[in-house]
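Cross-check.
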Amino acid sequence: MRNPPATAQPTAGLGAPVSVYCHQVTGRLPGAGPVLAVLTGGPADLAVAQAAAAWAAGTGSLVIAATVVTGTGFSLNPLLHQVRARRQDADSLAVIDRLTPILTAAGVAWLRTIVAVPTRAGPAPTPSLVTIRRLVDRFAAVAVVTAALLHDPAGRLAPLPPQAAAMAITAASTAALGTHRPRPSATTDCPDTEEEA
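Predicted model, tokenized:
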């Protein structure tokens, strides 16, 4: 039996330990944008929401709660389209309602978005890596928290060990609390500058 990867952070939930994986988007600073939490409606969602809320609270950023729901595909019938949209919205609200106390207790602002995956995805639907990358680009996210390890061959989503994630959160919160020294504007007159004739 293989051991779980070093990026796994075991968390007790509903009697069985679950793993949470933090992935940092390469080239972006930890506090420079929101944290994307991929929520599938499974038992690991509580741990994913806690990790995302801790990251967002430490950096003072927003949590994007991407709720994964199943979809039946495109329909030309507007009534079927409306029924599907209502069902997906209800399923998404059912997922996020369990996690609202966690996000509220952490004191972070959050936004819900719906990610539809095909019905054939199985009992635990997970979005594809392409879908997660699109969400990262759409919301300019700096981190992705999931219950599954993402294998990004391009290296854009780098998995972080729990210690590195905690250090990144601490560094970003320290940088956010630093003093701000405004630079002089180019349009204001400064007494130390001389004009050329």
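Residues 18 and 190 are 59 Å apart (CA to CA). The two ends are 79 Å apart (CA to CA). Passed to J.P. for a second look.
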